[in-house]
Design brief:
single chain
Amino acid sequence: MNKEYRKTIIAGNWKMNLLASDVKAYAEELMPLTPGFKDWCEVVVCTPFTSLGAALCAFDGTDVSVGAQNMSMHESGAYTGEVSGAQLKDLGVGYVIIGHSERREYYGETDCSVNKKVHAALGKSLMPIICVGESLEQRETGITFDLVALQVKSALHGLENLSDVVIAYEPIWAIGTGKTATPEDAQTVCKAIRDVIAGLYCKDTAQATPILYGGSMNDKNAAELLAQPDIDGGLIGGASLKPASFAVIINAAK
């Protein structure tokens, strides 16, 4: 099995940007710029919780999926401010980002909590986009591969299969900094992730699992990154906030 048989996914992560009232105009601008994208990739827009309803409405009847940026590991209960997988599923959400580096850095998420959230997401038929990646300091000390392997193994612990799982490699030092791993560097780590999955499961499972790149991919570098054999799409931050630049990335996946 080679890359052409894997799912290509272009996912926009809006982070804490844009308003619910912005979504309709965003969708109306994006859709004419990406005609027929379903033929070559899946497109996901991961909005803040407050915009999920607006996004589901704006993209209703299109091939764009809507995703959340986080979820609780708990099914329900006294967890003020949290949102459960059941609540996301009830809205109609299909994807959820889990373990983004900003969640790990600012909100204390750990490999253990990421694993619990992955299980919770899959238990509600949500597709998790699991983020892994190293800081600049970790990269410079030469532990990138060991660290990323540990994150992958921890996140996938206890899963019988990966048919509904997406991995996103996001070098922390390249997020929101304008810096980007070279296509060769990104490919090397994505290939290493695939090798870890092969060791945990089997070669066919590894070859079937989508691995995205999530470090400052934009309309200028997307084509070169997406051309790499083990990069199956992108988790796009800032460049997903403007429909025109996001459309360029979607079309670059063709």
